[in-house]
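Justification of computing resources. Each target in the renewal requires a structure prediction run like the one illustrated here; the chain below, 189 residues long, is used simply to show the kind of job we budget for.
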Amino acid sequence: MSLFPFNRFGAMRHTLRAAAFTLMTTLAIGALAQPAPAAAAGSLPPASLRLQDFFQMPVGPKGLVISERLRQAQGHQVRITGYVVQQEVATLGQFLLTPRPVLMSQHADGEADDLPPATVFVRLDAAQHDWAVAHARGLVEVTGTLEVGRQEERDGRVSWFRLQLAPEAIRGMNRFEVTQYLHSLQHTH
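Resulting structure tokens:
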């Protein structure tokens, strides 16, 4: 997967040379799809959760109700597979994971986006708070510690599901990968 070359102010950097990218604080999420590090002795492997199972079905008269399985996973290591939301401006230090592909047009739609209720706010390690994550085509698998419950985010959005990644879950891009990524931006098929 690849890097979205944003500076800290959200403006896309079109004219930087590949060497300058190695100095920027950005990341690739290619390591997200790789297996998680071996579990410590005596600990269980992360449980797999499906975004489609976040709520009790069928929806009742009171609306969406968080499933008991999801509540029990609170505070535990889990593995979730979903789609990285394609945003016009990446939110530094996190990305959004959904059960279906989503394109967010923040400038055109504002707060009226198409995010499904089972959107997970995937947070990077605190040391990576100024890293931007690119949109990745197709499904990705992420492993981290699950938080369930209402919380207002820095950007004013309300999140109900958050996944905290370990620092080794992501990595920066090398110059070759940056060059490939910039080339792919010019030739989207």
